[in-house]
Amino acid sequence: MGVFFQNVCKAYGKFQAVKDLTIQIPKGSLHFLLGPSGCGKTTTLRLLAGLETTTSGKIFIDNLEVTHLPAAKRNIGMVFQNYALWPHMTVKKNISYVLDLQKLTEKEKIDRLEEALSITHLHAFQDRLPGQLSGGQQQRVALARALAIRPKLLLLDEPLCNLDTQLRLEMRENILRIHEKTKITTLYVTHDQKEALSMGTSITVMHEGSEIQTGSPRDLYLRPRTPFLANFIGETNLLPGKIIQKKDHTFSLETEIGHLTVSSTEEFQLHQKVNISIRPECIKLVEREKNLEPSSHQFTLQSGSSTYQGECEILQLYTHSRRKIKCLTFNTDTPTPKVGGSIECIVQNKDIVLLPETFAGETRS
Known about the structure:
single chain; alpha+beta; 2 domains; five-stranded antiparallel beta sheet; 36% strand; CATH 2.40.50.140
């Protein structure tokens, strides 16, 4: 076992920052805590680090309960948003400082320093001051310092938020490379969905202090269980519907785009009001199909504005009730539909996700 939160709660007076959180983070994983500002993800990280105390519940690291263990005894490395480097110390001294606090021989200190510099590719910069480094280089120093103590667990709190776009991409690759090399269980806090989807081995999405869903990036994107998650991870089209027939886990729905047949492993009841989620890239523009496959559904929408972005084009389409539907087309030579005209669309049944109308822990938007 890596990390286990068991019914963890954190309250500040009447405010519940973390609500009954139970998640397991596999040993050696790069696990993301993802959610909007104020969702409780940083508080969760600080509880694990021992910088905050739980109101109730238990926290385990490698089967050892650490709920009330002082932060200094948890063997955790942490990288903060602002890196917290000593400006008057060289890169080498910034890293060596944390090693001086350990009960190590001089040879062990030298070996650890060499190892940290090597993993983070900082040998060429070891004699520079932080002010002489780029943002990405400072980030690597903070990582090197955290790794030098050989922690059981590495915590990263929005580590890339202060970097420009190109540096963020470079540092994503660096963090992935370092994680692959060290295999340290890593918990990474971010509000950036693309960062989590492109890097994480697993993700916990949080909202208003509660866990919404935990799973692999692919599972969360393709099979969200709530409207909030479908909207938060990537983009989606949410349409209201009503279940008019059910057989085992196959449901017939009445919606604005017609009758749909959708399979789901979740439990829904006859006549229940629901939502359906259809990703923009799953909607295909077609000519009228007379021999439609049973695994797909065809419907007519009205064409609106479009935005050309080179590799793709974003189309705004509308149902008969003027509900907006976003469609994404990639590298197509098909002419942009005329605004106001009718357009035929197809979506595969497997790409329609059945969701509850609302979900406990979520606020209706």
